[in-house]
Amino acid sequence: MSTLLWVVLPYVAIAVFVLGHVWRYRYDKFGWTTRSSQLYERRLLRIGSPLFHFGILVVALGHVGGLVIPDGWTEAVGITEHMYHVVAVVLGTVAGFCTLAGLAILIYRRRTVGPVFLATTRNDKMMYAVLAGTIVLGLAATVAANVVGGGYNYRESVSPWFRSVFYLQPDPDLMTGVPILFQLHALSALVLFCVWPFTRLVHMLTAPIGYVTRPYIVYRSRDEHLGMHQTRRGWERVQ
Questions:
Q1: How far apart are CA 195 and CA 60, in angstroms?
Q2: 8 Å CB contact between 99 and 51
Q3: In 3D, which of 74, 77, 72 has the Cα closest to residue 86?
Q4: Which of 57, 69, 169, 213 lies at 20 to 30 Å from 99 by C-alpha?
Q5: In Å, how far are 170, 174, 207 from 5, measured between CA atoms?
Q6: How far apart (Å, rounded) are the C-alpha atoms in residues 228 and 125?
Q7: Per residue in 22-71, pLDDT tens?
Q8: pTM for this structure?
Q9: What is the mean pLDDT of residues 66-92?
Q10: How many Å apart are CA 210 and CA 177, to the nearest integer?
């Protein structure tokens, strides 16, 4: 079971995440969108969307720093483990609550605003459930271990396991003594990565770079009398 959860499942999640996005881009390019519902309701969206997006951005950066960067690197630049732990717990807890509050507002809006609810698919409901579960478990693990409990340094267990997966030398023994909430959070994150390519979450991996280089939209007048000015080259009237 340990090998299945901490060796097989991570590689399955990575494969589904990468190949799923390739498949989605090739066969559902027009569906690669957030399906924005801003036209239906804006008041709750103006509150919930910034809370969620800025919160999740801080949470994501915190995960990158905690999982990818070894503790020896931070100590080498003068950041002690205690300093890192205090900043990570305080900032992560605040960002987690902001993310959860924003998500709660967005779910409430989607359920109570008629047109928004009618535009909600089963796929959206599944995505919201998995995303909310992952956030709740992560916040619960942080609060239970570092605020209520005596503290837990996941950089000595979860982080090395995470890096070992990408080193292609997975070590499931590192996850053996990890608290159950941290294990559930990691498993829920793997499930989230599996469903990610098939939901509206794909918009997080795109940027409107094409707008910079795409040609102008040319509007041509229907008026027969175009004025006394000579037409510039390239703007001749279409006969």
A1: 18
A2: yes
A3: 74
A4: 69
A5: 11, 12, 33
A6: 60
A7: 999 999 988 888 888 888 899 999 999 999 999 999 999 999 988 998 88
A8: 0.82
A9: 85
A10: 48
